[in-house]
Amino acid sequence: MTRLALFSDIHGVAQALEAVRVAIAAAAPDVIAVAGDYAVNGADPAAVIDGIRELEARGALVVAGNTDIAVADFDYGAAYPWLGDG
């Protein structure tokens, strides 16, 4: 059986990412998948991005979430569709 660690929605909270990383290290899964929404809203988005990059460098599967698209592409409609065209 393959053991999977899957998480998302860290939203710039470095303490949350650290807690997830500790749990992942303890569980020693076969696959780590990160499903987006890394940076918007929390106090330390840069630390979260750095941590996600470290996981990816070690083989984690990483995809962008809607808020990641908003930050990277300035497409805030992806994260906040109620904003419309403005």
3D structure, described in words:
The chain is of the alpha/beta class. Helix content is 45%, strand content 12%. It has 4 helices and 3 strands, in the order βαβαβαα. The protein has helices at 14-27, 45-57, 66-73, 76-79; strands at residues 4-7, 31-34, 61-62. A 3-stranded parallel sheet has the order 1-2-3, covered by helices on one side. The longest helix is centred in the N-terminal third of the chain and has 14 residues, at 14-27. It starts with a strand and ends in a 7-residue tail after the last helix. The mean pLDDT is 91.
Provide keyphrases for this structure.
alpha/beta, 12% strand, 86 residues, 3-stranded parallel β-sheet
List the helices and strands and how they pair.
Blueprint: E1 4-7, H1 14-27, E2 31-34, H2 45-57, E3 61-62, H3 66-73, H4 76-79
Parallel strand pairs: 1-2, 2-3
